[in-house]
């Protein structure tokens, strides 16, 4: 039996997941803090650093974001493993100062360091993650049963839109075609809305803000095993 506990204390929101009375996960977030991870921005390349094989990108936050060369090119996969970026690809060959980019924050700013970003956009749903710019179908590594992995991969291939990719999340274990199909449909519709909004957003600027902590945890944790939310 699983239980989700929400707590608001001194401007801090905490969300904890218990299973059979044992604490499994806990996350916390400042109530008034604007979280950047998961947000999608239009950014402008400010500096390209060949020595670091990286670039600094202005996305409209206090500090410029850091973009490593491996995050500036489409991801490549071998079966279900991410392949390392081609060492022959140089950051100065693909990015120029003043260039506009669509990016997503993958790591918050810490201290004097700005946030880390990628050009490989992902949009998470309940059962799957949509890769609108990458053609790949995969299954969460946390699902270990090989028969189930094969079944889910077949379902994902069936519902995956042309030119896009899908990764089945851990919560997708046991899911059936109609549920996964509906989840993917909603993600594709959201991406369609974002595509129309992107040209309207000034550079630098926020295109899409990810949901807050409570919404994320409810999306990620709630299943038929959860008996209470308090």
What features would you highlight for this structure?
230 residues; alpha+beta; OB fold (Dihydrolipoamide Acetyltransferase, E2P); Ribosomal Protein S5, domain 2; 6-stranded antiparallel beta sheet; 4 helices; 16 strands; globular
Quick overview:
The chain has four helices and 16 strands.
Description:
This protein has 230 residues and is an alpha+beta fold. The chain folds into three domains: 1-33 and 210-225; 36-120, OB fold (Dihydrolipoamide Acetyltransferase, E2P) (Beta Barrel); 121-207, Ribosomal Protein S5, domain 2 (2-Layer Sandwich). 21% of the residues lie in helices and 35% in strands. It is built from four helices and 16 strands. The strands form four sheets. Strands 4, 5, 6, 9, 10 and 15 form a six-stranded antiparallel beta sheet that branches. It has a four-stranded mixed beta sheet with strand order 3-2-1-16, with helices on one face. Strand 9 and strand 10 form a beta hairpin. The longest helix has 21 residues, at 177-197. The two termini are 14 Å apart.
* CATH-assigned fold name of the largest domain: Ribosomal Protein S5, domain 2
User: What is the name of the CATH architecture of the largest domain?
Assistant: 2-Layer Sandwich
The CATH class designation of the largest domain is Alpha Beta
Structural class: alpha+beta
What letter string, H or E per element, gives the SSE order?
EEEEEEEEHEEEEEHEHEHE
What's the gyration radius in Å?
19 Å
SS summary, helix count = 4
The share of residues in helices is: 10-25%
The global form is: globular
Low-confidence stretches: none
Major pleated sheet: 6 strands, antiparallel
Query: What is the total number of structural domains?
Result: 3
Quote the beta fraction.
Answer: 25-35%
How far is the first residue's CA from the last residue's CA? 14 Å
User: What's the average pLDDT?
Assistant: 87
The strand count comes to 16
């Amino acid at each position: 039996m699983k239980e989700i506990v929400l707590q608001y204390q001194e401007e801090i929101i905490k969300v904890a997941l218990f299973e059979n009375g044992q604490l499994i996960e806990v996350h916390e977030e400042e109530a008034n803090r604007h979280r950047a991870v998961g947000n999608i921005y239009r950014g402008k390349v400010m500096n390209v650093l060949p020595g670091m094989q990286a670039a600094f990108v202005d996305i409209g936050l206090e500090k410029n974001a850091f973009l490593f060369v491996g995050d500036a090119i489409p991801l490549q996969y071998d079966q279900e493993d991410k392949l390392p970026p081609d060492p022959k690809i140089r950051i100065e060959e693909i990015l120029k100062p003043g260039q506009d980019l669509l990016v997503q924050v993958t790591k918050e700013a810490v201290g004097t360091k700005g946030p880390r970003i990628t050009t490989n956009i992902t949009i998470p749903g309940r059962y799957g993650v949509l890769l609108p710019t990458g053609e790949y179908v995969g299954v969460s590594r946390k699902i270990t049963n090989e028969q189930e992995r094969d079944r889910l991969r077949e379902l994902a291939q069936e519902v995956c839109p042309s030119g896009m990719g899908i990764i089945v999340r851990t919560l997708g274990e046991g899911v059936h075609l109609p549920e996964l199909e509906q989840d993917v449909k909603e993600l594709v519709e959201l991406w369609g809305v974002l595509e129309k909004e992107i040209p309207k957003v000034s550079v630098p600027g926020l295109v899409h803000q990810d949901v807050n902590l409570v919404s994320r945890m409810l999306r990620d944790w709630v299943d038929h095993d959860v008996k209470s939310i308090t």
